[in-house]
Amino acid sequence: MKHKIGFNKLNRVSAHRKALIRNMMTVLFKHERIETTHAKAVETRRAAEKMITRAKVDSVHNRRIAARKIQDEAILNKLFTEIGPRFKDRAGGYTRILRIGNRAQDAADMVILELVDQKVEEKKAERNKRKAEKKAKEAKKAE
């Protein structure tokens, strides 16, 4: 049984695991979307959500704590100036994991880890509204 196991070791020593998660977080904040295995995505998600929560309040203390994990100054700045304010009104759940199937070489469960973007959701709502209007016009023409 796997009771009270706090995290996945990912078959790596602690230093390698920490470096892996730091690098994946940096790339996630840079590109806002990464493709990886499910196990790595779950571990990266835990760390990334904590960083985004810190980034919602831009203070020296929060920047220094985030700088421990994110070494790239430009990405750190992006986290506090763009990503943090974007999720200001959101209480949590800043990332989503989308399954994309198995990897061909070793059948590993592959996923896309991405930031939940409110702009994308607004665009989808607008697109659905336009489709509904278009259907209504076609229905009028059919009459």
Describe this structure in words.
The protein is an alpha+beta fold. It contains five helices and three strands. It has a single domain, classed as Alpha-Beta Complex (50s Ribosomal Protein L17, Chain: A), CATH 3.90.1030.10. The N and C termini lie far apart (64 Å). The model has no long low-confidence stretch (mean pLDDT 92).
Task: Give a quick summary of the entry.
This protein has helices at 14-31, 38-55, 60-69, 73-86, 118-142, and strands at residues 33-37, 95-102, 109-115. Helix content is 59%, strand content 14%.
In whole angstroms, how far apart are the ends?
64 Å
Shape call: extended
Class from helix and strand fractions? alpha+beta
Strand order of the largest sheet: 1-3-2
Share of residues in strands: 5-15%
Compute the gyration radius: what is it? 20 Å
Query: Please, how many helices?
Result: 5
